[in-house]
Amino acid sequence: MEHGKALGVKAIMVLPIMWIVLTLGFNVSFWSTTVLGIILIAGAYVLGDMMIFPKTSNMMATISDFGLSLIVLWIGLAVIGAENTFLPALITAVVIAAGEWFYHKWLAKNNMAPVREKRRLSENY
Fold first, then answer.
1. Does the predicted TM-score (pTM) go above 0.85?
2. Lower CB count within 10 Å: N or C terminus of the chain?
3. Separation CA 46–CA 28 (nearest Å)
4. Do residues 23 and 78 lie in contact, with contact meaning Cβ atoms separated by under 8 Å?
5. 58 — phi, psi (to 5°)?
6. Which of 107, 104, 116, 122 is CA-nearest to residue 3?
7. For residues 66 and 96, is the Cβ–Cβ distance under 8 A?
8. What is the rounded distance in angstroms from the CA atom of residue 54 to the CA atom of residue 104?
């Protein structure tokens, strides 16, 4: 599995979403958004893309990515002292989850997800 390429594609998807929603939409600083994004990318990659997605389905991995994004962003925004935390976290998590659906398809299509059962993975996307 090419972790660098997979992480790069994930970063290209997640960071612009976060910059647009959090920095432009909710006035969270660019650097705070970037740090939260890096934390989220690393956590979602390990948990969602390497552990959950290969063992379940695209839908389950996307739901888990949504939940992880919501929790990480909600807590992260509170830690950095943002005034409003839940709504920005929710909007960002929804948009990221939509992107994750397609990202998981890309992982499977390019054989970049660790797969226990090749047949089951192909049926799930």
1. yes
2. N
3. 26
4. no
5. -60, -40
6. 107
7. yes
8. 10
**Residue in the block written with tokens 């909710």:** 26
90 residue type, one letter: L
Residues 6+ apart with CB under 8 A from 84: 26, 77
Question: Residues for the chain: how many in total?
Answer: 125
pLDDT digits (tens, 9 = 90+) for 85-125: 999 999 999 999 999 999 999 999 988 877 654 444 555 54
DSSP H or E run through 90:
helix 86-109
Residues 88, 70: Cα–Cα separation, whole Å: 9
User: Over the stretch 33-68, which tens digit does the pLDDT of each residue have?
Assistant: 999 999 999 999 999 999 999 999 999 999 999 999
Q: Average of pLDDT values for 7-23? A: 97
For residue 72, give Cα distances in angstroms to 32, 47, 52, 118: 13, 13, 17, 31
* Distance between CA atoms of residues 118 and 31, nearest Å: 40
- Tell me if 111 sits within 8 A of 124, measured CB to CB: no
Tokens found for residue 6: 């997979």
